[in-house]
Amino acid sequence: MAEGRGNRQHPRNLRGVLQLAVEAGSASDGPAPPEPMTQERLEFLRGALAEVCKGQMDEVEQMKRCLEVLNRDECREGEEEEEEEDEREEAMEMLSELCENLDNARDLMKLGGLDLCMSRCLCHSEAGIRWRAAQLIATCAQNMPEVQFYLLNQGALLTLLKLTDHDANSTVRVKALYAVSCLVREQDVGLRDFLSHDGFSVLMRGMQSESEKLRTKSAFLLLNLLTSHPENKDTVLSMGMVQQLVSVLRSPHSSVHEHVLGALCCLVEDSPRGVSDCRDPSLGLEELLNQRVQDLRGREESLEELEFCERLRAVCFQGQPLEDSGMDR
User: Fold this and answer.
1) How far apart are CA 274 and CA 234, in angstroms?
2) Contact criterion met (CB below 8 Å) for 233 and 267
3) Whether pTM exceeds 0.85
4) By CB atoms within 10 Å of each CB, which of 4, 37, 135, 320 scores lowest?
């Protein structure tokens, strides 16, 4: 049996390497010592590992080729210009796909790809390039503190906030905000940068946008930041955020309302000022909440929104402390 196992052919790829590892582990579990590795197995292991390394090198080469496309001077006209634009968009999409691998995201940073993305792609005349650049930054920054710090030091957050606030294309604005969230959520340095650039005002304006996606993502990020960093509550209240959030609640019902109600719950928790703002008679919030509770009861898909409504109503208009409202999360 030992001889048969030694002569077995494995595929020359990573799966074959893993198969060898499993067999080696199984052999070591028994009472008998593991058999020596044959020359055939040793050669296979070397070859398979070389192919794995080559695969990683191939991906780096792919990224280099993509960067070459993005670095070209834009001097074509007519149909050639359209073809070149398509090539750039394809290069951006390939980079985003490759950089879902964290090692590739780090390599792209070292290759100068993120610098190119910020200096040329985020400010490109074509919206398709701008939103793909924001998407690429988000992909690279997600769960990668090293890349996050680099982007923050390069001033990426301010550029992304400006795109979120002012770009004429709604997709660019949505993707830019996604990249912003990847730089500030669970990232203290990014949050400080966000505050220094009046980021909460950007979110406030985002919630007033005509784009449903931008409104929803703005409200979601506001809720996330207030939940994880309640120390910024007074800053947000001083901006008149309660009034703005209630005005959003008066818009036609949509998925954004759940996040807005969650943010209002955060703002009234342990905050007399937040409660006072919500009780302002000119807002008519109590009547609005009463009506919303009636509308949402019995709708299984709206349980969380209903919970926020009842929680907010109990605290602001029934004098019930948040922790005793029966809705504490």
Assistant:
1) 8
2) yes
3) no
4) 4
